[in-house]
């Protein structure tokens, strides 16, 4: 039996769809939900007792539940830490108590930025918790960068537009499908550790825009540098702009070797997303 925390979210729901082909799956949620294909278990990662209940008779846990950078606007530092740090500790302790074989914990590359946000700090602290428990339970920690797929760009695709920015930087995102495959492979991986995940190599953000324009006729909307500067002061955007609009390059070699991760070519992925 596999328990997925965060299995109702953007990444977790795709993972659950794939796991169901091979395993019995139950999905943790704070809401009341029903499905004929798999079991929902009501619980909250901040409540240890509910985690003890959810992890009964479970062999593996995928722990994705948490407050993300995207949804963290207006969320206090304390709440970030309660859910992302203490919540992760509850999942680990309950897993140990119920003799779970392995936990696959989804952190973020935000945990290794020098200029980290509160979200990144909460993931860094959760990773420290994982290290503290590493002699008691097997844990594989996966750190994806900005995850994207067609759903993420649905509106831009619908209106056939893509931004052309007044600044350029190395963008190193993660296409969702190969990430999900790496999650599936993690069950068999014998090496506990911390694995960065991103596409094959970074691309200049405006190269994506130019290729989509030249090859597919997607219209560019120009966003001047000054507007991006102003965006840094808008609470809903500031975390995203500060962490993403910057030269980024992640070392994915360990993921390729140990998780059999097959990274996507970013430009090709964007061409497929906007071209289909
Ligand atoms: N999306 C990205 O680009 C990205 C990049 C790097 C890392 N990550 C990490 O990947 C994971 C999944 O991200 P996502 O974008 O799929 O997130 P999401 O769509 O915001 O979903 C969040 C999930 O967490 C669950 N959750 C939140 N608080 C909870 C709590 N207190 N107890 C139990 N469940 C709780 C929600 O379940 P219910 O609402 O059903 O209770 C939901 O399933 C997160 O840990 C995130 O930090 C995401």
Please tell me about this protein's structure.
The chain has a domain of 144 residues: Rossmann fold (3-Layer(aba) Sandwich), CATH 3.40.50. It is α/β, with parallel strands linked by helices and 276 residues long. The protein has a 7-stranded parallel sheet, with helices on both faces. The relative contact order is 0.13. Helix 3 packs parallel to helix 4 and helix 7 packs across helix 11. It has 11 helices and 13 strands. It starts with a strand and ends with a helix. Strand 5, helix 4 and strand 6 form a beta-alpha-beta unit. NADP nicotinamide-adenine-dinucleotide phosphate (NAP) binds next to strand 2 and helix 3.
Oligomer: single chain
For this structure, the CATH topology of the domain at 1-144 is: Rossmann fold
CATH homologous superfamily descriptor of the domain at 1-144: NAD(P)-binding Rossmann-like Domain
Low-pLDDT sequence parts? none
């Amino acid at each position: 039996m596999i328990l997925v925390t965060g299995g109702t979210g953007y990444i977790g729901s795709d993972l659950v769809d794939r796991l169901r082909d091979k395993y019995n799956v139950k999905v943790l949620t704070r809401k009341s939900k029903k499905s004929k294909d798999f079991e929902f278990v009501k619980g909250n990662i901040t409540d240890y007792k509910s985690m003890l209940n959810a992890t009964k008779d479970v062999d593996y846990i995928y722990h994705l539940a948490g407050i993300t950078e995207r949804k963290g606007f207006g969320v206090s530092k304390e709440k970030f830490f309660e859910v992302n740090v203490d919540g992760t500790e509850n999942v680990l302790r309950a897993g140990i108590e119920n003799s779970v074989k392995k936990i696959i914990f989804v952190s973020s590359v935000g945990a290794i930025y020098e200029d980290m946000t509160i979200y990144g700090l909460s993931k860094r602290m959760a990773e420290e918790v994982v290290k503290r428990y590493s002699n008691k339970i097997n844990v594989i920690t996966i750190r994806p960068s900005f995850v994207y797929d067609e759903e993420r760009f649905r509106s831009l695709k619908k209106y056939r537009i893509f931004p052309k920015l007044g600044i350029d930087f190395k963008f190193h995102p993660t296409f969702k499908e190969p990430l999900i495959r790496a999650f599936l492979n993690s069950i068999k991986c014998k090496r506990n550790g911390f694995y960065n995940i991103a596409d094959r190599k970074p691309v200049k953000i405006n190269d994506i825009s130019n290729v989509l324009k030249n090859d597919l006729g997607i219209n560019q909307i120009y966003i001047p540098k000054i507007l991006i500067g102003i965006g840094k002061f808008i609470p809903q955007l500031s975390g995203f702009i500060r962490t993403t609009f910057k030269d980024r390059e992640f070392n994915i070699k360990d993921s390729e070797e140990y998780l059999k991760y097959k990274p996507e070519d970013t430009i090709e992925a964007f061409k497929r997303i906007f071209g289909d």
